[in-house]
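Run Resolvase/invertase-type recombinase catalytic domain-containing protein through structure prediction, thanks.
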Amino acid sequence: MIISQNLYNMAKIGYIMAISQYDKLEEDREWMNNFGCIRIVEECDENERNRPLWKQLMVALQRGDELVIPKFSNAIRGSRELATFLEFCRVKAIRVISIHDRIDSKNQLFPETKPSDVLEMMGALPEEVLALRKTAEHMVNLQAKMIASLPKVSSTKLQKLDREKTVINLYAAGHPIDEIWRASGFKSRSSVFRILNKHGIKLNRGNHSGPIKKKNEEDTSKDMDKS
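Sure, done. The structure for Resolvase/invertase-type recombinase catalytic domain-containing protein is below.
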């Protein structure tokens, strides 16, 4: 996702660090949409540390734009970055609205917010940022472990599965047993019957009709010899 600078001219923009465990995502989206945000930028778990979309957004913001965030700890990664961000917004006259901190830099929303609330937000920022970072890293590590734990299918097994699929598809298409046998590459015709039986395919070819009997039954061996 590349943020075009031309889209932001005196605009309302939303930004959310949308990690998997963040339970207010839909609520924040609705708030931002109701406020009139023309776009909501959402960063995902694996980008929590580098935040490429946040960096693009900082470049794209124009003088007089309005930026809506869920919390300062959701968008900012530390006290030093907070100071730099606030100076950036001051210079560019960008209005910042933090929904859950209930802070509006233009003092139009949240009139009940006091200076002590702002100071409390700043004091809690490092702890909240660390908690969010740990949650994001945990989700990324968990996903990596889940992928690593998936059983690996060898090329030999894949070839076997492809051969069995060929037998089943040819039989379902109405091809004779002999043609299926030659196409499958098996050394014996009995292998074709074995695969059909394995996958529960009911035989419907003349002498080969109904369920396949056990190998030690004489009539089954005769049927195989005649086919």
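The chain has two domains: 5-149, 155-226.
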